[in-house]
Specification:
Blueprint: E1 4-9, H1 13-23, E2 30-36, H2 41-49, E3 55-56, H3 59-63, E4 70-73, H4 79-89, E5 93-96, H5 104-115, E6 122-124, H6 132-142, E7 149-156, H7 163-166, H8 188-198, E8 203-210, E9 219-227, E10 233-239, E11 247-253, E12 256-261, E13 265-271, H9 275-281, H10 284-291, E14 300-306, H11 313-328, H12 339-355, E15 359-360, H13 365-381
Parallel strand pairs: 1-2, 1-4, 2-3, 4-5, 5-6, 7-10
Antiparallel strand pairs: 7-11, 8-9, 8-15, 9-10, 11-12, 12-13, 13-14
Helix pairs in contact: 4-5, 5-12, 6-8, 8-12
Length: 386
């Protein structure tokens, strides 16, 4: 096998983008094996753009056709685990779209099944892990350049969505259709990056607003307080109603600080001595000189790095890496089993607000599922008119 034949399940915005990237030759070790969509209208689209690619309306039929070596699940979130398991059952490699699922119980089942098929490649589309900026931030943290983390703070409100976005279809921004709002639709990449770079919190306390500024049932405003269990804390803020938006990620360590602005610029401030050492050795005279800008010695050095992002480059990097793992065992950038961490964080933020109290991670998956089902039932009885 020189190229992996990918079966694309769902020819929507994301599936269409992947098909385009592959057709343009931007993923050299991959070709489109087949396309599947339950919407018959997509058949005409596929036939026009990719006339030589087989089209299926049933994904199982596509998997059993012999036309695909691997699949990608560009479908509603609830279906990601189910379709991944069905692929692995048939010895077909699987690339799950983010998030890995809606609730940890279904993601755990997927991970356990994947673990029983170690000869197959199971990955997840965490394309931000290929972003040179975040790779650099992780490298700095892992190398201990800013020491032990004391606090994380990410304000990511660049997800503005007008009411018309939610009104496009009945399933959008519903508990039954999507399983949540900004946490499961827009912010999964940041939830993954937060734990990938800084580690998983041990506890979460959140204040979440549902249908705060939009006529929807799910969350459009989130503030979460994170407790890492070792004294370090964090704040995660996101929403879909800030039309000017902010993207600022700060990581404070005992030997420095990292500030990421707009996912484009990184400012690294490295202390010349650890903060504790300064605190224990400086006289108040020394401190006053620092405050007044009269100190002859700088207490930190500053490095500024700027990054440019090419549209699609991160997605094609994950596709290429996924195919390379299948073809020659190249290590995965984002193993599929990692997907549970972001779902765990989203579930914890939801559950804390559902119960009105701090919750521990991992969350009780049965309690979470029961609370989610309550909201699905309530939504059925009292649907929001869009």
């Amino acid at each position: 096998m020189k190229k992996v034949r990918l079966g694309i399940i769902g020819l929507g915005a994301q599936g269409g983008a992947y098909a385009g990237f592959i057709a343009e030759g931007r993923v050299p070790n991959m070709e489109i094996g087949a396309i599947c969509d339950i919407d018959p209208a997509k058949k005409a689209v596929a036939n026009e753009k990719y006339p030589n690619v087989p089209f299926y309306e049933d994904y199982i039929e596509m998997m059993e056709s012999g036309n695909v070596d691997a699949i990608v699940t560009t479908v509603p979130h609830y279906l990601h685990p189910e379709m991944t398991i069905e692929a692995l059952k048939r010895d077909i490699h699987a690339l799950a779209e983010k998030p890995a699922g809606v609730y940890t119980k279904q993601v755990k089942e997927m991970n356990e099944f994947a673990a029983s098929k170690p000869e197959l490649t199971f990955a997840i589309m965490f394309n931000q892990r290929t972003n040179e900026l975040y790779k650099k931030v992780k490298e700095i943290i892992d190398n201990g350049e800013i020491g032990e983390i004391r606090r994380t703070n990410w304000i990511i409100t660049t997800w503005w969505r007008p009411q018309g976005y939610y009104d496009q279809s009945a399933w959008r921004a519903t508990w039954e259709g999507e399983g949540g709002g900004v946490l499961v639709n827009q912010a999964p990449h940041q939830l993954d990056l937060l734990q990938w770079i800084c580690g998983m919190p041990k506890k979460v306390y959140s204040n979440v607003k549902y249908g705060y500024q939009r006529n929807i049932a799910v969350e459009d405003e989130v503030t979460a307080l994170l407790d890492y269990g070792n004294g370090a804390t964090g704040v995660f803020v996101t929403c879909t109603h800030d039309v000017v938006g902010t993207d600022r990620f700060e990581i404070l360590g005992d030997k420095g600080k990292i500030i990421v602005d707009d996912s484009k610029k990184v400012t690294i401030k490295r202390l010349t001595r650890p903060e504790n050492e300064m605190s224990n050795s400086m006289s108040m005279q020394d401190v006053m000189k620092i405050f007044m800008g009269q100190s002859e010695d700088s207490i930190y050095t500053e490095e500024i790095l700027e990054f440019e992002s090419v549209w699609g480059a991160q997605h094609t990097s994950v596709l290429e890496n996924f195919a390379a793992n299948i073809l020659d065992g190249t290590p995965l950038i984002a193993p599929g089993s990692d997907g549970i961490n972001g779902v765990q964080l989203a579930n914890a933020i939801h559950l804390s607000s559902f119960l009105g109290k701090e919750v521990e991670i991992p969350v009780d998956e049965e309690v979470y599922l029961a609370e989610l089902n309550k909201r699905i039932e309530e939504e059925k009885k009292n649907p929001i008119e869009k």
